[in-house]
Amino acid sequence: MRELAKSFNSFSWALSLLGAQxxxxxxxxxxxxxxxxxxxxxGPVTRVAEGQLGSTLxxxxxxxxxxxxxxxxxxxxxxxxxxxxxxxxxALSTDVVRQSTSALRRLxxxxxxxxxxxxxxxxxxxxxxxxxx
Length: 133
What we know:
The model is unreliable at 113-117 (pLDDT under 50). This protein has a domain at 52-109. The protein starts with a helix and ends in a 26-residue tail after the last helix. The radius of gyration is 22 Å and the shape is flat. The protein is 67% helix and 0% strand. The protein is mostly helical.
């Protein structure tokens, strides 16, 4: 148990310092330049961490990954004024919606449950509605 605690602390410390290094690399890199060490260094670390996840958390990771990537694309579209072009704005917005719905499908592969908070399988609400007069 002691070695597990030490390993966890070492991992947390190394990950914090890696994050700090990546921020420094990002600040030092000129805008519009080629893909620098920040982007290429994080890919292998991400894949190793993702490989350690079980199936449920892997689905959650993939869903969050899709959503955050489309959100970053949209944010950069706003910052670079791409959204002022109506065609580009529609493309960015559509991509965000598509990625978000795809992410939700990963989290809820059988669909979103139709039950309310009780989880008893019965429909929620006030019950059946009387016919309109």
